[in-house]
Amino acid sequence: MRITYIGHATLLLELEGVRVLTDPNFDPKLGRFLPRVSPPGIAVERLPKLDAMLLTHAHADHLSFASLDALPRDIPLYAPPSVERWLRRLGYTHAVPLAPGAEARVRGVTVYAEAARHVGARYGVDRWRAEANIYLLDAGHATTLFAGDTALTADTHRLAEERVAAAGRQLDVAMLPIGHAPWWKPGFRRGHLTSADALTLFERLKARYLIPYHWGTFDHVTASAYDAITRLRTLVDAHARGADVKIIEPGETFALPGV
Fold first, then answer.
1. Alpha helices of 135-257 — where are they, by DSSP H?
2. Most buried by CB count within 10 Å: which residue of 31, 81, 207, 229?
3. Contacts of 218 (CB under 8 A, 6+ apart)
4. Against a cut of 0.90, is the pTM above it?
5. Are 44 and 26 in contact (CB under 8 A)?
6. Hey, is 162 helix, strand or coil?
7. What distance in Å separates the CA atoms of residue 137 and residue 160, rounded to the nearest whole number?
């Protein structure tokens, strides 16, 4: 298994010859006014042939229409059902619904979906489009979890526990978002992971490795692109499993040892 960090929540996953792209966003700006601070780790036109794409929710940093327009439409684009219906109405006929508890087969890889704790409505008022997914990919010899955006809850690790640990296996890679929560924004953790939360979830998932994302791509109104990763680096130094946290820069690839 190989995982390449492209930027923000966009990662290229290669498992058993299957290539999957997560939450594609190659935009030069976020919301038309927040500039990208580093180029995509792989330019959209230089991507290898893909087998599927995963969308976790409808927020603009995870669902970029310009990026979807630049990507192939002859492969499945998995999304929460309410987002899939919206995409199809907009002409993205390759969108496929994947509801929590459902699964899909992409050649030799099984993709499982579970609900994230995150309100994914695009515009705030469109609450019917608030669904957000977590995805688990199982290639038999390798497994990885992509959390999209989610808060830390008592059962955020349930999907891996039920699909991997219950079978006597260990999750190989947890790909988790990290965010920076200013002291004056106490509601942040109701829908997001801080760097400390990501480490806690990593422990609960009992994964072999953690790859953090959501950093080094866009400056936000409440935080710079590097606040969260700076905080994570300070925590990793003192963490018992710090050596298993693999921080890869945009364009860098993590190859799972032994697989």
1. 158-163, 195-205, 227-237
2. 207
3. 8, 30, 34, 35, 36, 37, 61, 225
4. yes
5. yes
6. helix
7. 10
